[in-house]
């Protein structure tokens, strides 16, 4: 949409060259700024983050960054375990006009969600699931999350 508007400004005979150039530079700046900080899908739609990746939750204005997997004791597929294990994922959350806070969400044991105003951000899944013990490198992890509206 921004590109379409920029093309209309550029082709207009009523707009002077300097104004055209300024509009193009502002539009490119807007596109560039959005590239590093995508906006999350709608409430109820899942989304995935890789380590180091950040997203802005549009309805809350909260920035969420996947910092690291703190621990992964999930029982590998090819191993028989006494318990299912747990994956714990550390996120940095910066509310609109607020300070950064770290939250650890879990796949099994411990909190799976954090409350953000009238919404709840929930860790749905940590991928990939281990097939054998210790086979996942930190940069290969992906966290699947969803933002739900809390019932009143």
Keywords summarizing the entry:
alpha+beta, elongated
Provide mean pLDDT, rounded.
Answer: 83
The ordered H/E elements are HHEEEEEEEE
Q: What percent strand? A: 35-45%
Radius of gyration: 21 Å
Number of strands: 8
* Head-to-tail CA distance between termini: 36 Å
Class computed from helices, strands and strand pairing = alpha+beta
Largest sheet: 4 strands, antiparallel
Describe the model:
- By secondary structure, the protein is of the alpha+beta class.
- Helix content is 19%, strand content 36%.
- The chain is built from 2 helices and 8 strands.
- It has helices spanning 2-11, 17-35; strands at residues 46-49, 54-57, 62-72, 87-94, 101-106, 113-116, 119-127, 142-149.
- A hairpin with a 4-residue loop joins strand 2 (54-57) and strand 3 (62-72).
- It is elongated.
- The model is unreliable at 31-36 (pLDDT under 50).
SSE layout and pairing:
Layout: H1 2-11, H2 17-35, E1 46-49, E2 54-57, E3 62-72, E4 87-94, E5 101-106, E6 113-116, E7 119-127, E8 142-149
Antiparallel strand pairs: 1-8, 2-3, 3-4, 4-5, 6-7, 7-8
Helix pairs in contact: 1-2
Summarize the structure.
With 152 residues, the protein is an alpha+beta fold. The protein has two helices and eight strands.
């Amino acid at each position: 949409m921004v590109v379409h508007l920029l093309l209309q400004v550029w082709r207009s005979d009523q707009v002077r060259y300097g104004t055209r150039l300024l509009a193009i530079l502002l539009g490119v700046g807007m596109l560039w700024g959005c590239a590093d900080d995508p906006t999350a899908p709608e409430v109820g739609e899942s989304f995935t983050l890789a380590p180091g990746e950040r997203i802005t939750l549009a309805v809350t204005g909260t920035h969420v960054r996947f910092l690291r997997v703190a621990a992964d004791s999930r029982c590998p597929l090819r191993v028989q375990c006494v318990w299912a294990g747990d994956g714990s994922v550390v996120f940095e959350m910066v509310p609109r006009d607020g300070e950064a806070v770290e939250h650890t969400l879990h796949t099994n044991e411990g909190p799976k969600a954090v409350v953000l105003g009238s919404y709840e951000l929930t860790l749905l899944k940590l991928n990939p699931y281990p097939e054998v013990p210790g086979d996942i490198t930190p940069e290969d992890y992906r966290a699947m999350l969803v933002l739900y509206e809390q019932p009143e």
